[in-house]
Amino acid sequence: MSDLNFNCPQCGQNLTTDESLTGSEIECPSCSKPIKIPSAGEEHVQIVEPETPAPPVTSEPEPKKLAVPVHEGGEELLKKESAKKKEEITGDGKICVKTIKRGECIELGIDKFDEEINQFLENFSREQIISVQTVNYAHFDPTTQKYLDDYGALIIYER
Fold first, then answer.
1. What's this model's pTM, rounded to 2 decimal places?
2. Distance between CA 153 and CA 101 in Å, rounded?
């Protein structure tokens, strides 16, 4: 069976897949958006003949393949980038302050305050951290119509 070569309609990533996947829906390995595998007769779809002969038929079917060609620099591992970008540290000696509030570190009901603090502190050497202080504050919760107490961390560091 032949392979199909086409571009993701969302991000333009060039993809090659087995013709047997025609009509199925996959997640693009580059942009993570769902795409439908086109058929061989559609526009902008090239049929690529496999270079090696097909292996003998076995009782167990082979898993279907999906490949992303890499044209420059060899193979690359595709990773989804996290929504939060790491802060760049320039090392210019400025004194900076970072406040991390616990209430802003809750994702889907899971408290990730400690992880946020650790991720931020990993960007610095021990000599760059000047002070880490706790802070208490109150914020208005619109759902309960009350002021709620919370806490956070105030980090003073040299970049």
1. 0.41
2. 7
